[in-house]
Specification:
Length: 338
């Protein structure tokens, strides 16, 4: 060891490794923690009873009939998971150009909400507000004569859908459609109809991402969408400052919580939103991120538990309050046996 000619000291002036030398110290100084309180489990809902279907591009994820979803809610609540979000897999014959199935009180999402809330009242149920599971073309909105996703007529449909979710007992409605003005329209309708307690989780910064592929397989909208894309309404992946404008608008329109989606490629956006607004900020680790990690786990190239925990901790460090992740149930189990 050389001595510093000025100070005469024979050691590094600071040793960050002191705080890393044993697990007890690492635990004491750790800045961020992942807790079961942060987890939201997405589930895919199908018709029928006592039925599940595997989703090939999402190993370990199953579509579930409503009775199974309600049983799953009980399991998740038992693990301490506070919330789940529902994605209905609409049969093709229920899809239409006007997406009317989206606000059918007997629709899959509406029935699933009622089943969960009657069996596990403490489970917060989040519903997705967007038309893609219900349109024949797989777009999130309604088309005009030119085939363009028309903003303002779509708003009326989204309002009907959100209202029907609130009526069914959804705790939180989550518009994921990216139409302009939808949060204001939904908030006004909920207030007018006596649902002032229904929270809005706005997918405020939702990018036109290639990472949604497995989800579209899971809900069966991929075939409908075909070679179409959602770039006239979902955000351009090159933009960061625009996310702040989107979040600002959604908050001004009455959103209670905002979400950034996808997750891992957009951690910078989570951080910027957290610092700029400091409001409840959620992250969505999307289907493609789940598929990608699982592919590596299956190959034996990455270690499952360690990588999942590290990826989710990354969301917390970036500034996320809660995380929608298909790993939620599994992670809750790991957190319990730590
Ligand atoms: C529907 C919706 C999508 C996702 C959540 N809600 C797909 C899309 O916008 O095409 C994607 C979730 C995921 O990939 O896990 N509007």
């Amino acid at each position: 060891m050389k001595h510093d000619p000025v100070t005469g000291l024979g050691y590094p002036a600071t040793r960050p490794r002191r705080l890393r030398r044993d697990e007890a110290t690492r635990r004491l100084v750790r800045e961020n923690q992942l807790s079961v309180d942060d987890l939201i489990q997405p589930v895919f809902v199908i018709e029928g009873t006592d039925r599940t279907e595997a989703v090939p591009s999402m190993p370990g994820v199953e579509r579930m009939s409503i009775d199974r979803v309600a049983a799953e809610a009980e399991t998740l609540a038992g693990l301490g998971i506070p919330a789940m979000t529902l994605f209905p897999v609409t049969p093709d014959e229920a899809k239409s150009d006007d997406a009317a199935e989206a606000w059918n009180p007997q629709g899959l999402a509406q029935r699933a909400v009622r089943a969960i809330k009657s069996r596990v009242p403490e489970m917060a149920v989040i519903t997705d507000v967007a038309l893609d599971p219900f349109t024949r073309h797989g777009q999130d909105g309604l088309l005009d004569e030119a085939g363009y996703v028309a903003n303002d007529i779509t708003l009326e449909a989204l309002v009907r859908q959100a209202r029907s979710h609130a009526e069914a007992g959804a705790d939180i409605v989550a518009p994921s459609d990216m139409m302009d003005g939808r949060v204001a329209a939904i908030r006004a309708a909920l207030e007018a109809d006596g649902y002032s307690e229904t929270r809005i989780l706005a997918y405020a910064a939702k990018y036109a991402s290639a990472f949604y592929g497995p989800f579209r397989d899971a809900v069966g909208s991929a075939g409908n969408l075909g070679s179409g894309d959602k770039r006239t309404y979902q955000m351009d992946p090159g933009n960061g400052a625009e996310a702040l404008r989107e979040v600002g608008m959604d908050l001004a329109e009455g959103a209670d919580m905002v979400m950034i989606k996808p997750g891992m490629p957009y951690l910078d956006v989570i951080r910027r939103v957290r610092e700029h607004f400091d409001v409840p900020t959620f992250a969505y680790q999307v289907s493609g991120e789940y598929a990608m990690l699982n592919a590596a786990f299956e190959q034996g190239w990455l270690e499952r538990r360690a990588c999942v925990m590290e990826a989710l901790l990354g969301f917390k460090r970036a500034g996320a309050d809660a995380i929608l992740t298909y790993f939620a149930r599994e992670v809750a189990g790991w957190l319990a046996d730590r």
